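Bench notes, afternoon.
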Amino acid sequence: MTPSVATFSPALQPATQVALVDALVEQGWYVGREVIDLELCEALNHELLHRAAYNGLDEAGIGRGQQHLLRKDIRGDAIHWLDRESAAQRRYLDAMRELQQALNHALFLGLFEYEAHFAHYPPGAFYQRHVDSFRGRANRVISTVGYLTPDWPSDGGGEMVIYHPDDPSQEVARVIPEAGTFACFLSETIPHEVLPTRCPRTSIAGWFRRNASLGGVLDPAR
């Protein structure tokens, strides 16, 4: 008898790539519901909540290197960088690698790396309006957010607000942080923020990066 082989649904819905590329070209951002496989969301959410319960997360800051600061008045989440240590992480990161290849093929972006971290927002936490690129080192090209929390209540808060690139005061989308939703946008030009959450909020924030250097020194991830 031939042994059975475990099969998995696609980590991202196959139609996502086409819709995502079209939206990035037309408006600079994409949001899709029920995009990430819900069983994968459940596994990732369980891993993140376990880390949160056992002090396995680090307080998130702004900037990096010597300019890295903890500013709870700006950003209140806690994070853990994905490192492929679990099957769920590997499956998610493999899906992002496939998306990276699709983006390079369609848009000739020269993306060479993807970095991502879990993000846990406790009740009351938020992240003020910002863009994701670093001044002088614009190596983050496309940002992604995969949402993990199931059954998000209508009064839960915690939405990500996306603003118009030419008018940062004009709201163009509000993303409910419910499991399966996937958002993607241009890192340098799309302002966004996370509104105060009333419930524990879980997600994966990630960035497709282009090689960058400053003064002949390679600019590393993170």
